C-alpha cells in the first residue's frame, strides 16, 4: 500500500486550481485533483452545472424571488444551457426546506416520469435499443416545476420562464463542458440511421459545420418558441396545448407509446421525505419512487451500528471504505427486493424501522467483504450488461434560509437522442429504469424483481437523491448528484465526510468517491480525483473487494450553511463543469 494521500493536499490543490482556472477550463487545468468553485455569502446562493443557469437563479433571488422561484428558473434555464441532462423532456425530484421557524414541513415534489398507458410488464423485455421513442417516459418536469411554483413561488411564472426563453432565442455562450458534451453526442448520433435522431443532430450542429468550442454561441429557436408558449400559457401548454398535440403526433408517427391522454393525465405529487438521524443531524432524502432516501437511511444506520473508523489525516482508510462499502452492498440488495412506485406497490412499513437496518448490519464482517451473491436470498440470480449515466443536480439557498435540492434527468446523457422537431427539446429514455424482464436478475446488475416492473401510469424506480441536512430545524447542507445508481453512494461519501468527520464542504466535494451497488459485485473507486482511494485499493482487495477503478463519479453542486454566522458556502463540483452564483444579502 502506498502512503495515504493527505486530505489537506487534496483541498489545497482543489482550491488553488479553482482560483487560477478560467471558467470552463477546470477539467483541463487540474486533471489529477480537480478543482471546486467556492463562493461565500450571507445572501442567496445557487450552485449548478451551468454558469448561465446559476446566474439566472441569482438574478431571481436578487429580484426578491425565494429559493423555489430561483430553482424553477434554474431548472428551465438548464434545459437550454445543459441539454444533456437539464430538461423539460424528463423528470426528477425537488426537495424544499422552508426557512427556520416556518411551520411547513420539508417536502419532496415528485415529478418522476410515468409509463405510458399502453405498457405491460413485458413491453421492453426484448428491447435492445435504449435510444428509441418507446423508451420515453411521460415527462414530469414542467408539471413538477408548476406544482413547486403553486406551493412556494412568489414571482410570476412568466418571470421565471423568461430567462430560459431568452437563452434559447438569443443564444447561450457555450462553456467548455457543454462544447465537449455536444461534440460527443453529435459524433455518436452521426452513426445512427434513425430518422428520429436527426432533429437533435440538426438542432445542435455547429452553424459552420465544425466542432463547438468554448465561447461559441448556441441558439435553439424551436425550443425558444416552445418555452415562450409555456411562459404565456402556463404548464397546461405542455400537457394539453399545442406542445402536447405536437408530441402526441410525433410519437404516433415514430413507433412511440405516449398518447395525448398520457400527457393530459400526468400529475406531479407532493410527498413526505425520508428523515434519518445521523451524527446529531437530520438527513432528509426523497421517498419512493426514488430509492434515494431509504437506501441512504439504511446505509447511515448500518454505519452507526457497526461504527465507522476515523481516517485521521488520510482521505480514506481501508477500514472506513470497507464498512461503507458493506453497508452499500446490503442497502442495494434491499432496494432491489422491495422498492418501486408506492402508488402501485406496498412499501413495507418495517423497512423504515431502526431494527431493519440493525438486522442488515449484523452480517457485516470487520475485515472481510461479503460475496454479493450470498445476499441474494429469494431473488434468483442469472449470469449476465450495466447502465450508463446522465442527470444533473443543483442546490439553492435564499437569504431567508429557504433551501432547494433539485435533481432531474433525461436518464442517459442526452436521453433517448429523440427530439420532436416541432418542439425542439430532447426526450428522456427513463423507461430503462424499470425492471425490464420479469424474474430476471443477473450478476451484471440487471434487476427483475416485482416491485419495479412496468405498468400503465407507474413511476420507474429512481436513485436520485436530492438531500437537505438540518440541525435543530436549520438547514446546514444541501447536496445531491448525478450518476445513476452511484448517486446515493456519492451522497453518502459527502455526508460522512462533512457530518461525521467535520470536513469542510469544498474538501468533501473534492475527495474521491466510491460506489458498491450489490450487483455487479464491484467496488468502483474514483481515480481521477487524487490518490485517496488508489492508495487503499490493495488493502481493500485483500479484504475481498472487487476493486474496479473508474474515472469520475458524480457532480455534487452543493451548499453548506454555517448555523452560527449564517454564512453560506456554495461549492460547484469540478467534475463536469459548473459554477456558483450569489445574490447580495
Ligand atoms: O433516476 C435515476 O435513478 C436515473 N435515471 C438517473 C440517471 C443518472 O443519474 C445518470 N447520470 N449521470
TrEMBL record:
Description of how the protein assembles with itself and partners: This enzyme consists of two polypeptide chains, which are synthesized in precursor form from a single polypeptide.
Any one Pfam family match given in the protein's UniProt record, by short name: G_glu_transpept
Keyword S-adenosyl-L-methionine: no
Active site: residue positions: 391 (nucleophile)
InterPro entries hit by this protein: GGT_bact, GGT_lsub, GGT_peptidase, GGT_ssub_C, Ntn_hydrolases_N, TAT_signal
Annotated catalysed reactions: an S-substituted glutathione + H2O = an S-substituted L-cysteinylglycine + L-glutamate; glutathione + H2O = L-cysteinylglycine + L-glutamate; an N-terminal (5-L-glutamyl)-[peptide] + an alpha-amino acid = 5-L-glutamyl amino acid + an N-terminal L-alpha-aminoacyl-[peptide]
GO BP annotation list: glutathione biosynthetic process; glutathione catabolic process
Top-level taxon in the UniProt lineage: Bacteria
PTM summary: Cleaved by autocatalysis into a large and a small subunit.
PANTHER family hit by this protein: GLUTATHIONE HYDROLASE (PTHR43199), GLUTATHIONE HYDROLASE PROENZYME (PTHR43199:SF1)
SUPFAM superfamilies: N-terminal nucleophile aminohydrolases (Ntn hydrolases)
Keyword Secreted: no
EC number: 2.3.2.2, 3.4.19.13
Species for this entry: Roseimaritima ulvae
Molecular function via GO: glutathione hydrolase activity; leukotriene C4 gamma-glutamyl transferase activity
Pathway(s) the chain acts in: Sulfur metabolism; glutathione metabolism
Protein name per Swiss-Prot or TrEMBL: Glutathione hydrolase proenzyme
Gene transcribed to yield this protein: ggt
Keywords associated with the record: Acyltransferase, Glutathione biosynthesis, Hydrolase, Transferase, Zymogen
Family the UniProt entry places it in: Belongs to the gamma-glutamyltransferase family.
Residue numbers binding L-glutamate: 112, 433, 462-463, 484
